[in-house]
């Protein structure tokens, strides 16, 4: 009788561990469960395809304008004037520059489309990106101006954006 109770308890523990594993696995495959806000712009990727640094920044307010490469292509080819910010969550220069860019955008009432080159490695070649961060201004589907690197201040971003847009 003692062995049956022992094996029953072991069996119950195994079933609980399997249940917890299945529950956790299902949670991680739900894109909205990766962030507290439910923000998930990587609509062409499954959650388990994202890198940890990207997942860590899903709730960061400075990275809430991310698009897929197809969406960026569509935006640029629409002919509308658009700034596109190429960045990587593992780039220390991006981590320093992005809050400044966000401040600049607030100050001059502009918007930017972001493309995470860590998740979309083809973007390096497709958009001729040499380093991150890179901010590119497009108009009529063509590149007009490019800023590579961290300008060091929100004012540096503001000056670039107003000059590029001809303001």
Q: Could you characterize the architecture of this molecule?
A:
This protein has 167 residues and is of the alpha+beta class. The chain has two domains: 1-28; 47-165, Glutaredoxin (3-Layer(aba) Sandwich), CATH 3.40.30.10. Helices cover 44% and strands 14% of the residues. A four-stranded mixed sheet has the order 2-1-3-4, sandwiched between helices. Strand 3 (134-139) and strand 4 form a beta hairpin. Helix 4 (92-108) packs across helix 6. The protein starts with a helix and ends with a helix. This is Thioredoxin 2. It comes from Jeotgalicoccus saudimassiliensis. GO terms for molecular function: protein-disulfide reductase activity.
Features:
four-stranded mixed sheet, alpha+beta, Glutaredoxin, single chain, 167 residues, 4 strands, 44% helix, elongated
